[in-house]
Amino acid sequence: MGSNAVIRTKLGDREPDFSGKVRDIYDLGETLLIVATDRLSAFDHILPNPIPGRGKVLTQLSVFWFEKTKHIVDNHLITADVSEYPDWLSEYREQLEGRSMLVDKAQRIDVECVVRGYLAGSGWKDYKNTGKICGIQLPAGLVESQKLPEPIFTPATKAQLGEHDENISFEKLADSIGYDIAEKLRRMSIKLYEFAHNYAYSRGIIIADTKFEFGVLGDQIILIDEIFTPDSSRFWDKNLYRSGEHQEAFDKQFIRDYLLSVGWSGDGEPPQIPDDIIQKTIERYRQVAERIIGGKIE
């Protein structure tokens, strides 16, 4: 597995100006070219095996949601059509098609804007220990995977590669970026989540939680990076959902669960991923994307 995967990109002699866990970014002056590779990260480490086709799923879902949510908040997407890119990029069409976006260059706000609608993951662990998530008091007696009375905003610091994001309180966020901006991020994040949750629910998918990144362009706060993908969101099958249980994952949690099952959670070098786990991962990514979009991921 993986021979047809895009692990890293190069445009002729040009290397990416920045490579993250998944994306290669080329600075084109006023704009950025973002290319989603098939690299996979878990527990803040890039795993040794890529997932062929993963970058296309991430990109096409993001493009779908950017278009779907721009009435709520504007975003950095200019186009994902390679024929509309600068002319010199046309010779790299095969490398870029379906997995790249031309976007406005915004000044990133260094915070992960997390919204939780259900009790899962680190939020469930925090709740079991304290009855709270990021300092937000929740009702007593909630069970794993239960839908929360209302979505909550639980921001996190944005860590460097190899380091862990850290959940912070809203008050700490407001201290670092100012109350007005923090409140605007909270309001926009919850509105985006509620809209997407309702839409995905109508397509048989539950978005349990998600995270956003925002940037500043001119005097406007806009959405950047990716949105409502299996990397940035926790997806569950509506028909299989049972409150009080750990849910079958339709997202990157499937890989995390496998890694935990073999005793790796981020310490030391990550293990090789078996071919069947790679195959099941991309199948889940494609299934959730095609159900939401209503068409095939090319």
Notable characteristics:
17 strands; 5-stranded antiparallel β-sheet; 8-stranded antiparallel β-sheet; Phosphorylase Kinase, domain 1; 7 helices; globular; 298 residues; D-amino Acid Aminotransferase, Chain A, domain 1; alpha+beta
Structure write-up:
The protein is an alpha+beta fold and 298 residues long. It folds into two domains: 18-105, Phosphorylase Kinase, domain 1 (2-Layer Sandwich), CATH 3.30.200.20; 108-252, D-amino Acid Aminotransferase, Chain A, domain 1. It is built from seven helices and 17 strands. The strands form four sheets. Strands 8, 9, 12, 13, 14, 15, 16 and 17 form an eight-stranded antiparallel beta sheet that branches. A hairpin with a 2-residue loop joins strand 4 (41-42) and strand 5. Helix 1 (54-69) runs parallel beside helix 7 (275-293). The radius of gyration is 19 Å and the shape is globular.
Shape: globular
The fourth-level CATH homologous superfamily of the largest domain is ATP-grasp fold, B domain
Average pLDDT, rounded to a whole number, is 94
Q: Can you count the helices?
A: 7
| Beta-strand content | 15-25%
Strands, count = 17
Largest sheet: 8 strands, antiparallel
CATH architecture of the largest domain: 2-Layer Sandwich
CATH topology label of the largest domain: D-amino Acid Aminotransferase, Chain A, domain 1
Give the termini separation. 19 Å
Structural class: alpha+beta
Q: Into how many domains do the coordinates divide?
A: 2
Stretches where pLDDT falls below 50 for ≥5 residues? none
Give the % helix: 25-40%
CATH class of the largest domain: Alpha Beta
**Sequence of secondary-structure elements:** EEEEEHEHEEEHEEEEEHHEEEHH
Cα Rg: 19 Å
